[in-house]
Amino acid sequence: MKILSVYNSLLVLGRGTGQVMFQNNALSGLLMLIGIFLNSWQMGILALSGNIISTLTAHLSGYGRDDIKNGLYGFNGTLVGIAAGAFMELSLGSLLLMTVASCISTRISRLFSLQHSLPGFTAPFILSVWILLGFCIWIVPDILLASDTVTDTTQGIDYFQTLSFGIAQVMFQENLLTGLLFLAGILINSRTAAFYVVLGTFLPIPLAILLGIDAEMLNMGLMGYNGVLCAIALGDKTLKSLVWASCSVLLSVVLQIIGMDLGITTLTAPFVVSVWVIMGIQHLVLPGTEKR
């Protein structure tokens, strides 16, 4: 019984990681976790910690067992945990703040689940991290890491790196192998989703160049990760979905650039907002269109 309980717990944690990229598959999540650990064992532990904390919060709060089992509370906590390592010095204080933010993400996820107008996607993660960063800026600014400055040191676009980093940046990773493991995790669950992942990383390139984004930003995957999520969220096997997904990807690029120009830590907000906008348009143009 104990072995079965451990196995079920691992399945929940795996799905919680896989759901970051819409994959309700424990093996997909495991490959993604391996990818994170390959890039940074600290971030791997933080990802697991955020996943466990948010899932446990949902369990103790008596939220739906099926939702918990399918990782629908764990994936936002996973992102919160990784974000803590990306933005804060690792210390007891930052770990405590990460714990609180992971719990908050679960509460926000619950609020989204109580209404049917808008899917939450990664909004609970975004709002939790914005709250976390706001608290740090005002109360404990020394806990924050210094921002990295992007410099254009490349001669051109490295399309392979752009693909891999664009996928990996969904979870704040900058590692070629990590991105490939993420893609493999998606591919074993859905070839259609894997196609849309590739679309989501490459489609932003011409628009980003037209809007003045340099090659280094593209090579770091900073223009692709929101597109990856947009494409998976809206894409299926129909031509119509391909058009809608492409529109969402391009809109996310514009929103990302606007956010960066305004000095906003955008996280995955361009993805969430662009998909909400497209879903709203779909509802107006095609009444009765089901929300995904």
Mind explaining what this structure looks like?
This protein has about 290 residues and is an all-alpha fold. The chain contains 15 helices and no strands. It has helices spanning about 1-20, 25-40, 40-60, 65-70, 75-85, 90-115, 125-140, 160-170, 175-185, 190-200, 205-210, 215-220, 225-235, 240-260, 270-285. Helix 9 runs antiparallel to helix 10 (about 190-200). The chain is globular, with a radius of gyration of 18 Å. The mean pLDDT is about 90.
| Strand content bin | under 5%
* Number of strand segments: 0
- List SSEs in N-to-C order: HHHHHHHHHHHHHHH
Mean pLDDT: 92
Specify the oligomeric state.
Answer: single chain
What gyration radius follows from the Cα positions, in whole Å? 18 Å
Q: Structural class of the helices, strands and pairings? A: mainly alpha
Distance between the termini: 36 Å
Helix content: 55-70%
Give the uncertain stretches in residue-range form. Answer: none
Q: Give me the number of helical elements.
A: 15
The largest sheet is: none
- Identify the overall geometry: globular
